[in-house]
């Protein structure tokens, strides 16, 4: 395998091709993956670009352009999976991420070394409450991409021989994930009993799941079984790890060898060479993906519809206010937040609260502290788990003002429940504490939530209003929806009648995310078929909406 080092500036020529990021951890996983990588079409070497703490490899797996990056073992800590995935998402901006490598199995009777585990859920097992001999599980579960799960559990024609009489099997289910390298059958069985049903375990999936969810990226863990965490890990260790890693990589290569595997994610084979129909309506996949984006990045700015509410948001940023955006799902809260902060030149750090239990406020702030430390590659004096909320707030203020200059800390999907007043009081306390301890702080906070944060907090809303400015993300107007649809249609040269446009807008109920979903479905439906575009548009509206 030949490699060619290129600069970050030269890499910009290829970055729009990078819809897929592959993550490995061990050297064996990396070697097995690179056995299957080939150079991009027209090149002779795998491209290599170095950015910050990471080295990225650009090539082809099957028929798709991919970017590979290696993580260190575990979820937290410098260059571990949380930081690796976050940096890859921000640098590459992929459509989806797959972690491929090795894992342990839990059932020797039904599983073999070399069988491949595919994640339905990643189960974080580290957070537990132990009291009077009882263990209460507090870890979260994160569901992987349903579409990717379907593609990897239904590989067309895939076979990987483990022995002359047995091929590798694809096993889907819940996968344990935690910081411990487990090689003790009693501890393994304790975890299996606590979290049943599970099919295996590994150490990095939690980081992938949490960051991918925060950035709205599809993801999947695909790992071959190399041992059973039963105290016998060292027996034929290297051979078994190669078998497991090669099986997982081979499954990926097989799935990536199909022309249509990822078309529903708007990801197509490199150069679309499979399509020989000169009369077919074929869109530029990069333009299509950018024009119908759900997650904002600077490369999508020309496809962003600037509205009056964006001007309000920008003014708040200019005055260095803390901002809280609330409103219905799909109304553009996250996109508006990211876009205006990026345009203002602010650094951004995201903490996702969608799967966090707010019944225990100390655990909420401990989670915030851990995420901030992991991302900053904290190198100061050791900061231990806080024993009080105030101590956690002090730690957070110290970290953000040392490592997050000129930044907004985005608190995404704040969970407002029957304890929301406690949540408000503590978030307000954090903001006040930061302003007192660091009067010249350049760090601010941006919040998003579905529910109105001002509900049921009447006793303190005036006090909150002194520190946080609220913006309601309302249902879009007809003119705004028409403007968004026109942007997408012009980008991919899709000519729709006024009648069809009105149907799409009406059926989307003035929700921009729903409109993008319908438009994306329409364009994908029109791809790689023999009939004319006009015929396929008519057929789509008949099937989808019953409109002749």
Quick recap:
The chain is α/β, with parallel strands linked by helices.
What is the overall silhouette?
A: globular
Strand residue percentage: 15-25%
Give start-end ranges of low-pLDDT stretches: 272-278
Mean model confidence by pLDDT: 87
Strand-pairing-aware structural class: alpha/beta
Radius of gyration: 24 Å
Question: Mind describing the biggest β-sheet?
Answer: 5 strands, mixed, barrel
Number of helices: 18
End-to-end span in angstroms?
Answer: 55 Å
Q: Which strand order spans the largest sheet, edge to edge or round the barrel?
A: 6-14-13-7-15
Provide the descriptors you would attach to this structure in a database record.
single chain, 548 residues, five-stranded parallel beta sheet, 18 helices, 21% strand, globular
Textual characterization of the structure:
There is one protein chain. By secondary structure, the chain is of the alpha/beta class. It has helices at 8-11, 27-36, 81-92, 146-153, 185-195, 205-214, 237-255, 285-291, 308-318, 333-343, 361-376, 389-403, 420-437, 461-465, 478-491, 498-507, 512-525, 533-545; strands at residues 3-5, 20-24, 46-51, 54-61, 64-70, 96-105, 116-124, 128-131, 134-137, 141-143, 161-163, 166-167, 170-177, 200-202, 218-227, 322-327, 347-352, 407-412, 444-449, 468-473. The strands form four sheets. A five-stranded mixed barrel has the order 6-14-13-7-15, surrounded by four helices. A five-stranded parallel sheet has the order 17-18-19-16-20, sandwiched between helices. It has a two-stranded antiparallel sheet with strand order 8-9. A hairpin with a 2-residue loop joins strand 4 and strand 5. Helix 11 packs parallel to helix 12 (389-403). It is globular.
């Amino acid at each position: 395998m030949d490699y060619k080092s290129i600069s970050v500036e030269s890499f910009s020529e290829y970055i729009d091709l990078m819809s897929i990021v592959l993550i490995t951890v061990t050297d064996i996983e990396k070697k097995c993956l690179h056995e299957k990588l080939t150079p991009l079409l027209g090149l002779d070497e795998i491209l290599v670009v170095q950015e910050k703490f990471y080295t990225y490899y650009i090539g082809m797996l099957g028929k798709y352009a991919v970017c590979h990056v290696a993580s260190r073992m575990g979820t937290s800590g410098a260059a571990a999976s949380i930081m690796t995935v976050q940096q890859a998402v921000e640098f590459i901006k992929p459509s989806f991420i797959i972690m491929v490598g090795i894992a342990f199995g839990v059932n020797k009777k039904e599983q073999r070394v070399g069988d491949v585990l595919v994640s339905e859920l990643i189960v974080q097992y580290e957070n537990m409450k132990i009291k009077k001999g009882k263990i209460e599980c507090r870890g979260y579960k994160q569901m992987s991409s349903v579409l990717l799960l379907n593609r990897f559990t239904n590989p067309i024609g895939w076979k990987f021989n483990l022995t002359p009489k047995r091929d590798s099997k694809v096993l889907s289910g819940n996968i344990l994930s935690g910081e411990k390298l487990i090689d003790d059958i009693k501890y393994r069985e304790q975890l299996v009993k606590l979290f049943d049903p599970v099919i295996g375990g590994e150490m990095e999936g939690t980081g992938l799941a949490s960051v991918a969810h925060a950035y709205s990226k599809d993801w999947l863990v695909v790992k071959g079984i190399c041992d059973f965490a039963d105290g016998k890990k060292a027996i034929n260790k290297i051979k078994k790890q190669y078998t497991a890693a090669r099986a997982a990589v081979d499954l990926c290569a097989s799935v990536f060898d199909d022309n249509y595997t990822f078309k529903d994610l708007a990801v197509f084979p490199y150069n679309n060479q499979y399509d020989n129909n000169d009369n077919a309506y074929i869109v530029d996949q990069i333009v299509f993906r950018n024009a119908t984006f759900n997650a904002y990045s600077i490369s999508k700015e020309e496809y962003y519809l600037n509205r009056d509410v964006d001007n309000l948001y920008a003014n708040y940023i200019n005055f260095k206010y803390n901002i809280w955006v609330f409103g219905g799902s799909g109304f553009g809260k996250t996109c508006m937040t990211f876009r205006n902060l990026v345009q203002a030149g602010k650094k951004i750090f995201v903490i996702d609260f969608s799967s966090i239990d707010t019944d225990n406020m100390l655990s909420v702030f401990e989670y915030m502290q851990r995420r901030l430390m992991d991302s900053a590659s904290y190198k100061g004096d050791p900061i231990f788990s806080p024993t009080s909320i105030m101590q956690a707030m002090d730690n957070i203020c110290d970290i953000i003002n040392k490592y997050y200059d000129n930044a907004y800390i985005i608190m995404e999907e704040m969970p407002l429940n029957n304890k929301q007043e406690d949540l408000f009081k503590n978030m307000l306390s954090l903001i006040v504490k930061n302003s007192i301890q660091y009067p010249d702080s350049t760090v601010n906070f941006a919040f998003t939530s579905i529910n109105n944060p001002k509900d049921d907090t009447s006793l303190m809303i005036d006090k909150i209003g002194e520190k946080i400015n609220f913006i309601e993300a309302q249902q879009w107007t007809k003119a705004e929806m028409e403007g968004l649809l026109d942007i997408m249609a012009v980008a991919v040269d899709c000519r729709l009648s006024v009648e069809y446009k009105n149907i799409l807008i009406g059926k989307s109920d003035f929700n921009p995310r729903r409109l993008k979903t319908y438009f994306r479905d329409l364009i994908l439906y029109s791809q790689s078929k023999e009939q004319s575009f006009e015929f396929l548009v008519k057929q789509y509206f008949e099937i989808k909406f019953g409109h002749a």
